[in-house]
Specification:
alpha/beta; six-stranded mixed sheet; about 25% strand
């Protein structure tokens, strides 16, 4: 691909020192920036404003939680910053490259090498093994088969599934499938992970394991993690929280500015204590 190396030069220029904790240090730079971001959808003459002028800056090494009710614009925002869709108005910069100025080849290169995507429904290829799912993006990234296999096994080891490399999705639990999806997202060493409701289809225990894994990737690997979620446990892990409502950013706050409270259920009657059988 002729344009790929040129894009790599433009986007990788200026390496960043990440603090040992993985949190952005003094030398962290802005890796994603949006300016006046708007997105409109029109159907049968009805216009829906999905995004209404978002101005956001996200730095390397940050863990960002994007929260808001269903239909607030979180997924549309992810499509924009993940270069999966184009805005109706405004601009998206990834590593200070204006996405709107890229050719189709350059966009494909950016999606392949700069951003890893983790979906709520895993999106694994059902007839492929775990290893084949993880290594499939590497073919597009230009890795040789032997190198891809070695890296794929290493990534599966990182997510705790090296001994499941030959299993297909139907042979794995939901948590295992999501771990494979995370390994696949890391295939080409992206700087950013976009996680769209990564724990939504998982039980509490498995969901916590996935959050712990994302935290470790961020803290130890310096990967920028942007997570759209309704899971309030994510709030304890992130550096900043972003609330989106009606296509606008309602508030952005650092974690230490937010008080997290666990609510209780009031009203009604307490359940009766279980009866104990008399000892024989």
């Amino acid at each position: 691909m002729a344009d790929g190396p040129q894009l790599a030069e433009r986007t990788v220029a200026g390496d960043v020192a990440i603090a040992a904790s993985g949190r952005p240090g003094a030398s962290a730079r802005v890796i994603i920036r949006t300016v006046g971001l708007r997105k409109r959808y029109e159907k049968k003459g009805v216009v829906t404003e999905a995004l209404r002028g978002l101005d956001v800056e996200i730095c390397t090494g940050e863990f960002i939680a994007v929260m808001g009710p269903s239909g607030s614009g979180k997924s549309t925002f992810f499509n924009m910053i993940g270069a999966l869709d184009r805005p109706s108005q405004g601009r998206v910069f990834i590593d200070e490259v204006d996405v709107a100025q890229l050719t189709a080849e350059e966009l494909a290169y950016l999606r392949c090498r700069k951003i890893g995507y983790i979906f709520q429904s895993y999106n694994l290829i059902p007839y492929m093994t775990a290893l084949e799912n993880v290594t499939s993006p590497m073919a597009f990234g230009g890795r040789l088969p032997d190198d891809a296999r070695r890296r794929g096994l290493k990534l599966l080891e990182t997510v705790g599934l090296r001994d499941r490399w030959f299993h297909r999705p139907i042979e794995m639990s939901g948590g295992q499938q999501q771990r494979v999806a995370i390994a696949r997202a890391l295939a080409n060493e992206p700087g950013v992970l976009l996680c769209d409701e990564p724990t939504a289809n998982l039980d509490l225990h498995t969901g916590q394991e996935i959050l712990d894994l994302l935290e470790r990737l961020n803290a130890e690997g310096g990967v920028t993690v942007i997570c759209a979620t309704h899971d309030h446990r994510t709030m304890r892990l992130c550096d900043r929280l972003m609330w989106v409502r009606d296509g606008r950013i309602e508030r952005i706050a650092r974690r230490d500015e937010v008080r997290i409270e666990i609510g209780s259920i009031a009203g009604g009657r307490a359940a009766p204590a279980p009866r104990r059988e008399a000892a024989p």
